[in-house]
Structures
1.
Amino acid sequence: MPIRVRLDRLLLQRRMSLTELADRVGVTIANLSILKTGKARAVRFSTLAALCRELDCQPGDLMVFEPGPADEDDETAEE
């Protein structure tokens, strides 16, 4: 997946635990953990907005697009 989640970095910069963020956002720790480890397949805009609000960041601070050779093969397979 070429989308990378930078939640760990933001939590460290904000000196906030995953538990504290989960409480503030209203999302389970398990779901935030899935997002943090890059295993999430989707994120609701309302969750993304709540994360940005609580972490005082922009969506681009949370997620980045990093394409690689394997990702190009995936795109060809879908066509």
2.
Amino acid sequence: MYAGAGFSDWEIGDIDVFIEGDVYHLFHLIIPNHDYIAHAISHDGISWKRVKNALFVGDPGSWDDDMLWTMHTVKVNGHYHQYYTGLRLRDRGITQKIGLASSSDLYTWEKQNTGIFPLSSRGPFYEDVENMPRKWLSFRDPFFYEENGRSFLLVCARAAHGPFSRRGCIALLELEESGIKYHPPILYPRMYDDVECPCVFKLDGNYYLIGSIREDVKVRYWFSDQLMGEYHCFHSDVLLPQGNYAARVVKDNGHFLIYNFYYTDNQVNSKRVLPPPKQLVTDDRGRLALVSFYRWEKMVEYELLQNNFPEARVFFGNHTASLEIERDRWNMRSRSGYELFYFQSPSTSFIWEGTIALVGLGKCGLLCDMDDQGNGYFIPFDVVNGVVKIRTWGSNPENLKQDFIFSDLQSNLFPVPANGIFSFRLIRCGNYIELSIDGVIRLSLMDYKFSAAGLGLYSASSEIVLTESKWKCLPDPKEEYASQEDPII
């Protein structure tokens, strides 16, 4: 985990990850000033350390002397290129352009803005300075893609026609020897104000476009069987649930990883953190799905099987509740009301997985970070409607007139198991929480509210059976705040 925080808790902006050998390189914006592009490195893709900054705003009078926005780093013919967004003071930052920098080692960068660069938005396909009803011109977040000897840039842009709040599109530019060719939008959904941080990749025979949507702070995707073909969406087009934003995809040892930053309160000015990546796979219908990062298993220090878990306890002492423990099987019931069944996690960072069978009616869910007052994170499973949520739930001693905390942090859908049996995988590492159901990630977030040892399940008028469960110890992550690391000169 990583938060580029200093005076403010939300300094990390849009991100880009490039992998060279066994080193992960993170480039990101600094919010709110946008005056330079920061650089951090990692050897596991999770814990990061700041190194030499990549780019700074230009000198007064240059086209990028106001702000720098989203970038993309690639390797072309043995050399590193970074395409980036720049804004100019002279026009008060209302027009965005795409520039180019180069490097021989990923650490020292030189701007190469001659010839066709910087690139700007232009008609007839896109808005220009004569056609911008919002009074500012979107042309940012470049993403380089190369295939069959052709080189393209995908750009967050605006179509030249349509209702001005629905013009958001992904522009397609082709880099040719003779210059730059502006194609029609590769995607124009006619739904959004902007489609931010676009990227494209090919997986299992299909091309997938990813974009971040400001309207609801979610990451969505579209698919096609041709790079420049017609793109479609599935019934559910949300790839990352609310709070996850500015996602980009990078290939790592044969795995497609998706990185993004996370808004802790779903607000633009709230704390922003870079969580661990997820992996992308496809199902039998070609839909994208998220699975856990392959390096988690490499980090496991030891594991406990279910029959070796710490002592299981009940919390409330509900007289209608019962807990029966057999070898590799826990039977938990609460006929009336609520009961918590829990054990003390041996470490603060862990993977907990198992199989849950819900018998009959009633409610059930997981709990973690629960303290001796029953405060913690609660994850209810709605196995009728296929909804899973995570909420903070506990006491609020700072306001005795409303002496409780009850706030849903994130929700998502999942396929309802016909037999009421499903597997789960809960990862808790530092302040990161990830939940998979039947192998697919449904919740992914960062939160800082609770940190205690209670871990378990709850029942409300239900019977739950836990089997095939394992608890795995993870090392605690390194300090998230890059400013507190030893500097690298």
3.
Amino acid sequence: MILEPELTWTGARFERGVQIAIENGVITDVGQLGHNDAQKLKRRALLPGFISAHSHAFQRALRGKGETFPEGAGSFWSWREAMYALVQQLDADRFYDAVRATFAEMLAAGITTVGEFHYLHHSPGGNDHLFDEIVLRAAKDAGIRMVLLLTYYKTGGIGQPLAPAQQRFSTQSLPDFWRQVDRLDADHLGIAAHSIRGVPLDEIAPLYDEARKRGMVMHMHVEEQRREIDECRTAYGAMPLQLLNERLSSCEGFTAVHATHSDPEEMGRFLDRGGNVCITPLTEGNLGDGIPDLSALRAPSLGTDSNARISMIEEMRWLEYGQRWKSETRGVFRGAAPLLQAATANGARSLGIDAGAIEKGKLADFVAIDLDARAIRDVDESQLLEGLVFGGGDDVVAEVWVSGRPARRTSSSGGKPPR
């Protein structure tokens, strides 16, 4: 198949007359190829497919349930109780419906790949890992590319057993966890350590070392809330990111999610050792966690996290807006191109996949923008990306391709989970 959009994003600008050759889901050539049989995409601007590097798909079912917090309660900790209540209600059918609806909505917003940070493993009252299979099935049925980040979750707090509401997250030991990893039939598989409160400190480095031995990426929630940081300091005498820098053999292939309260100097050390960072502006704002200091950050990726609002265009916009509010980081993103990079290529690097750019050898994942969409139809071609990021919404998304195939974007229903 050969596509020829009216405009194609080539990494620095939109260009006309570009043709994209695709075979077996991979881009085999890009440029002024001169093919007469190309499929013309009139009034379409083609971008690499958006990548959400951090998602908890089932949490979309919390919309409207965790938005109002008891007086005097911290937003995250009150929201967490609402999440635990939801978990108790999710059987196999409801879980499948929730995550399938999330993936369908992602496709409608131009997201072609999701990094699913998955920790709701078990059926109610069970220890069966059934929900690991269900999330794989839901992604396949929806037609989205998923990197399943199977999550190790052992403690309910630093030095604390799992609470009753957390039992369905349980991974009892490292050997048991790796046996479950080996049982899964997933095209793209990585791992995650839930957090410094969810995984004993002495088990984080062994998790990382085994992941790297297997060629897998590893993700972890890091320094999302001040309360967790205070508990970590009390228990270990240091902040989580400092502990990771001291204990991990390197940080290659490791993504710290959030880093909302990270020290810039420690962050610089983490990045120098090969680490990645994923920011989730809409969820961090929704929960009132705070605005990260990105003065030391290079090439962040973006995620939709709780999926209270699924829009990578808004994630890009608010990543930049948040830094405008902080005098020390104002101007850290100059123009829209670095924001698009965060929503595409940086996410691909974080998830360890060959995607995120319209280049030879990359996966043929695209999002087509409707040039006649109301929000951008009067924007000059030379400023189209800025107009899209700072003035557009998901209604500008016209079509989506995953592995060179048009994705199903109109329905979130269908199919039943495995039994």
4.
Amino acid sequence: MAQTSHPPLTLRQKLTQLWEKIATNRRLLPILLVVGLALSFLIPEFNLVNPYVQLIMMYVGINIILTLSLNLINGYMGEFSVGHAGFMAVGAYISAVLTTQIFARDLNPWLFPLAVLAGGIGAALIGLIVAIPSFKTRGDYLAIVTLAFNMIVKSVIENIEAIGGPRGIPGIPRLTTLPWVFIWTVLAVWVIRNFIYSNHGRGVLSIREDEIASDLMSVNTRKSKLLAFTLSSFFAGIAGALFAHVLQFISPKVFDILKSTDILIMVYLGGIGSIGGSILGASIFTILLELLRPLGMWRMVLMPLVLVLLMLFRPRGIMGMREFRWFVPIDDLEATRRWRARKEAGDAAASS
């Protein structure tokens, strides 16, 4: 009996098969984390790459935290928040005040995590206060509330002379290093991933699909919303604290609506409802923005144009509603395989 010959695989098919093998190898992720942690210490210590590249790597990590935290609201919960820079500003100012005024006399680098954590907790508390009345509204109304919050935070900071007012806070010590950014980024990915696949996270996903049906199925939608919004605000504050100690200067203008728009672009570029998409979106946006820097102000025209084209040809983004298998719990993968097997068996039985 003659054997059937298969057509040769195209380059795209070969790359797809290679990527699937890498993605299904769950031992690779911890290896990559160990290698990444080692490199984050070795690169600054031995100056393996120039300081400019190290700075871009730190901005990539900070933007990953921002994108993940906003994706929790806009992607996984299905709401639309546009004031994320406001929570970032709260974390940045709290940590900057601690390191420049309270810890200034005896500033120990090991106190820096406490300042970052304080910025995150402060942003989480503000996020909780904003979330309680905000979630009585939905959709476009929530966008208006969060936009107003961003403007209120900016105006309040401009009118407090104790923290510099419109002049901002200069002379912030350079405490953010590549290892600290790597550690906080991995922590953000781990916490948000575990939250998404927890009971509360599944409640958040059910809200995105149908909030009324979730209520009927005894899901405490209010509690799930508050937890998601508070966690999102917390990591926005963490990112703001890291950002302040990289930039070494902050002012209210840094955290205006344009900053919130940049975070939105990263979320929708990488794809909503995807941890891997958030990592890709933040990395691509940050690196592409630096590569286009020689174009001057034209790069601020090209980046929104890229987003418009993406919305036209791939509305969900690069990884919208899809996930790398590294980030999916093994139990969920096994349940998906069993469901697909039953579905294929049912289809086969129906066709016969």
